[in-house]
C-alpha cells in the first residue's frame, strides 16, 4: 500500500496517541459507557475504514482533492476522539472519587489506622532483572566508539536481534548467504509498531525508523546511528516491560 499524505499521516499519529491513552484508561477502569464504546469503534472500525477507503483508490486518483478529503475526514475523527477521551477521563475521576468515599466509610480515615510494615521482597522477584537491564545487555557492543566497519555492525545486529526476537526481525543478505544488507526490527506498541531499519550504503550504514499502523507505513525518518540506537533501546525496553512473553524470551536468550 502507498503511504498517506504528510498532513494526513500527522493527524493519524495524533489520533493513534489518543486511542492508545484511551485503551489504557479502559483497561484500568473497565469503563463500558458510550465514550468507551465510541473510542473502541474508532480504533476497530472508523479509522481503518477511513484509511482503507483512501488507499483503495488507484494511485492516479489520489490527487490534491482526494488528499484534502481524507485530511478533513481524519480531522473530524481527531476532534471526536479528543471529545470522547475527555469524557472518559472525567468519568474515571468521578468513579475514583466515589470509590474513595466508599473506602473511607467502610474502613475509616487513613490516619486512624496503624501504619503498614513493609514485607520483605521475595528472592524470586528481586532476582528478576529489570527490563531495561535486559535490553541493555542485548545492545552491548552495538555502539562501540570508533567502530569503523559497517559490515561488522550489520552482522552483529542481525545475528543478535534475530536470535533474541526472531518473529520481529528481518535480515536480508546478499546472494548465496553473503554479507548482511539490511536488518529490520519491528517493535510492537499498544496501537501501532515502529520499524527500525539498518541498511548498508556506500561507505557506511543508513539508519531509519518507520511508524506502521495496521500494516500501513505512515512515515519514515532517517537518523544518525546514535539516535537510532537510543530510540530502539527506549522502545524495546517499553515493549519488554509490558509484554511478559517478550521478557521471558529475552531472558532465555541472554541466559544461553
List SSEs in N-to-C order.
HHHHHHEEEEEHH
Structural class based on helices, strands and sheet pairing: alpha+beta
Q: Shape, please?
A: flat
Poorly predicted sequence stretches spanning 5 or more consecutive residues: 119-128
Number of helical regions: 8
Strand order of the largest sheet: 1-2-3-4-5
Beta-strand content estimate: 15-25%
Fold and architecture overview:
The structure is a single chain. By secondary structure, this protein is an alpha+beta fold. The chain is built from 8 helices and 5 strands. The chain has a 5-stranded antiparallel sheet, with helices on one face. A hairpin with a 4-residue loop joins β2 and β3 (193-201). The longest helix is centred in the middle third of the chain and has 44 residues, at 64-107.
Question: Main traits of this protein?
Answer:
single chain; alpha+beta; 2 domains; 5-stranded antiparallel β-sheet; 8 helices
